């Protein structure tokens, strides 16, 4: 086995359907890049582009999102000598394992998956005769593909948002059934890691920043656009000179997710002293812009050099497959699909 086998394996996937925004950065990208610098950890970060096909059947959007997300992680300093960074679709062992797991996974387990249940509930609310209307096998089996992502590399820890905890439990279930049926310790039991300290950023309208609410600030928009978006952040009608409450303010929340403790404390005093909204917005824009300028330049340069991104991801896929391929051989033997001689 490889030297990485005694390290804690941390794995997470990013579905490639959108453009990364400030909320993604604060909630997922920044903590993941920091975690990957821990020498006791081997991290596996991948573009979940097979998952993207479930939600998005616009090939240009999937393609663009893969490139943008890869460029974002690289521009923000992911060290790919350290972390194994790859595209899910470059690892053919993953869909192969998906099939093996499908054959041990109870259909009833999938009936209970939140995403599937939500889609059925929507059909029922809309009064559709067929509760499964518009639901593909991809959506139904989504947790099996996700289990394969995780179990392929025997990940110990899987950092995810709350909404994904159920999927990790399902992966544990499939791991246990496979081990039991085929009488061996093939798969470790993965654990979901939900970091309570990680901030959930609010968006322009004050609700959670999310692509589905169309209230995001994309990470690498132009300076002009960034200013425009910051000016759009919802505030209240208090006048300059009137004290303002930082703790209920989206603008302040966004600022504090980026600023140091001292800078945040200083801004808090400004709120109490009645800083005007226009002034506060200018300050937040200046701050964000100063911090995003360099990564934005690197991001633009990366997008202009897709060959480089391709090479980085291929190298990541080679490293990932050097583990996945021999493991898949073992699994084939386990289920009776090994070579004859
Ligand atoms: N389903 C996850 C999400 O939407 C993305 C994902 C795919 C993932 N495969 C994974 C996350 C494996 C962790 C581990 O956020």
UniProtKB/TrEMBL annotation:
It is an enzyme of class 6 (ligase). ATP binds at residues 15-17, 23-24, 161-163, 201, 208-212. L-tryptophan binds at residue 149. It comes from the Bacteria. A motif ('HIGH' region) lies at residues 16-24. GO terms for cellular component: cytosol. Catalyzes the attachment of tryptophan to tRNA(Trp). PANTHER family: TRYPTOPHAN--TRNA LIGASE, MITOCHONDRIAL. Homodimer. This is Tryptophan--tRNA ligase.
